[in-house]
């Protein structure tokens, strides 16, 4: 159950904040969350007061880019690489994917700096081998599901016809009927409390990846707004409200146990809102598209570690979710170089750039180029985009209670060129006006594509060579998902 009231009350009587030198680092990743589905981006109907207050006290990230869907974004965050250099597929755990075993994760870097590390929620960064589960990749503890979606109450993942709930090193079989994000919240709160009681000097890294607001659209009735008409919009907004309450609980726990005054908190979506539920107004496109609505995520950074001069402001420089890898490494005092990957001539190095100086001083971004996908690239003010008919168009502020405005032209056959500084809604293809710029961006994208890397493509599974098919794995685990490959 939620414990917001008691935690907020306790936060006013907490003891002294930690005197640790390294900051507490919190990454809150919300699934399928639309750009317009929080109040801080102008939505007066959104029930997200705690998120909005954190954003008001923080730095809004106006050009924060992710992949157009789930697993590549998570793989990019954890590995510090553009998706084209780690994973562009949404593979289930029955197939190799996510972050290659030869790559070092952010969690491993932070653990090497002395951090206590915890992960809650949706993993989807690899689960084919046992070496890919969170506690084998730098997390001290974890709870969540290995795949991309499941029922919020039964935890059934239909694609594999199995339940998916993983606790540390084994399937967790006692959560039937419990709302997923309640499970993940309680484990995060327990981690904070346990660390405060047993090893308060250690800095914390918490990666809390919400199941909400991903389909199926399900939420306890208490979080529904009766002022909204019944339907998918009301349920989706209720799921966002649940996220808001959970974040209020997490921040209250950090205050209660004396961590908050030395905390940096990042909030972002993993991609744009999907058609039928999320709203990305005023941008073009939805989840599964490379238009701004699919890849420019709602995001901000907040917390007392952020310099006072940057609070209540916004940052217009480009950054990619992969850049948090080097940014967190800088804050933790560790070298972001992936030495393990360097031992292989097949694995690309990190793309991540530390954004801390830029964010803490609101200075020029070190990133002038964002490789969005194998078909889309941003350089400076210009964006070269090739994206299919799926998930195209513009929504109103009341979407999905209203329809989608369809474009008069597509970018599915021939790439389009947009100046996203003056045309962030991507309504005007300027290819004919600036053919040289378009050619330059096409050449840049082709050059990046030469280093394309997809986890699993070369068959590498490390020491985990004892493999079974997923049907046998599920049978042996009483109907639950588990990795297909283990050590012999």
Using brief descriptors, characterize the structure shown:
488 residues; alpha/beta; four-stranded antiparallel sheet; 25% helix; globular; disordered N terminus
Task: Give the secondary structure arrangement, pairings included.
Blueprint: H1 4-11, E1 24-30, H2 49-56, E2 59-61, E3 64-65, H3 70-79, H4 106-112, E4 116-122, E5 141-145, E6 156-157, E7 162-163, E8 166-167, E9 170-171, H5 180-198, E10 204-209, H6 232-256, E11 263-269, H7 292-295, E12 299-302, E13 313-315, E14 319-320, H8 323-332, H9 339-342, H10 356-361, E15 369-371, E16 377-379, E17 382-387, E18 394-395, E19 404-405, E20 411-419, H11 435-449, E21 466-467, H12 470-476, E22 485-486
Parallel strand pairs: 1-10, 1-11, 2-13, 3-14, 4-5, 4-10
Antiparallel strand pairs: 2-12, 5-8, 6-7, 8-9, 11-12, 15-16, 16-17, 17-20, 18-19, 21-22
Helix pairs in contact: 1-6, 5-6
């Amino acid at each position: 159950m939620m414990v917001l009231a008691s935690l907020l009350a306790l936060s006013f009587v907490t003891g002294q904040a930690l005197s640790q030198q390294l900051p507490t680092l919190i990454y809150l990743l919300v699934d399928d969350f639309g750009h317009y589905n929080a109040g801080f981006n102008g939505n007066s109907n959104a029930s997200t007061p705690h998120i909005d207050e954190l954003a008001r006290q923080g730095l809004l990230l106006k050009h924060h880019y992710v992949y157009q869907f789930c697993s590549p974004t998570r793989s990019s965050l954890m590995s510090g690489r553009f998706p084209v250099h780690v994973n562009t597929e949404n593979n289930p755990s029955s197939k190799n994917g996510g972050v290659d075993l030869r790559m070092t994760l952010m969690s491993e870097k932070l653990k090497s700096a002395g951090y206590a590390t915890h992960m809650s929620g949706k993993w989807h960064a690899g689960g084919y081998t046992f070496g890919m589960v969170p506690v084998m990749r730098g997390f001290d503890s974890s709870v969540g599901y290995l795949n991309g979606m499941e029922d919020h109450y039964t935890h059934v993942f239909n694609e594999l016809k199995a339940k998916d709930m993983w606790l540390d090193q084994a399937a967790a079989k006692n959560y039937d009927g419990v709302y997923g994000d309640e499970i993940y919240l309680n484990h995060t709160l327990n981690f904070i409390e346990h660390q405060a009681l047993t090893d308060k000097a250690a800095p914390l890294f918490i990666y809390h990846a919400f199941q909400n607001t991903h389909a199926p659209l399900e939420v306890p009735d208490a979080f529904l707004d009766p002022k909204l008409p019944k339907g998918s919009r009301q349920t989706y907004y209720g799921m966002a409200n649940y996220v808001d309450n959970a974040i209020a609980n997490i921040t209250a726990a950090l205050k209660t146990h004396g961590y908050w005054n030395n905390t940096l908190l990042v909030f972002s979506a993993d991609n744009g809102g999907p058609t039928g539920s999320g709203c990305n107004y005023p941008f073009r496109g939805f989840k599964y598209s490379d238009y701004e609505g699919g890849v420019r995520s709602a995001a901000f950074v907040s917390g007392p570690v952020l310099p006072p001069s940057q609070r209540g402001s916004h940052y217009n420089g480009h950054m990619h979710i992969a850049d948090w890898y080097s940014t967190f490494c800088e804050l933790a005092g560790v070298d972001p170089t992936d030495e393990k990957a360097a031992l292989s001539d097949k694995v690309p190095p990190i793309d991540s750039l530390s954004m801390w100086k830029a964010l803490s001083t609101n200075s020029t971004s070190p990133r002038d180029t964002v490789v969005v996908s194998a078909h889309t690239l941003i350089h400076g003010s210009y964006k070269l985009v090739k994206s299919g008919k799926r998930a195209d168009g513009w929504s109103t502020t009341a979407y999905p209670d209203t329809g989608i405005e369809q474009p008069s032209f597509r970018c599915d056959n021939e790439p389009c060129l947009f100046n996203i500084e003056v045309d962030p809604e991507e309504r005007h293809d300027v290819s004919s006006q600036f053919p040289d710029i378009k050619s330059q961006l096409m050449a840049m994208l082709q050059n990046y594509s030469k280093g394309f890397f997809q986890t699993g493509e070369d068959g590498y599974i490390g020491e985990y060579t004892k493999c079974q098919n997923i049907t046998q794995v599920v049978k042996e685990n009483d109907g639950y998902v588990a990795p297909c490959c283990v050590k012999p």
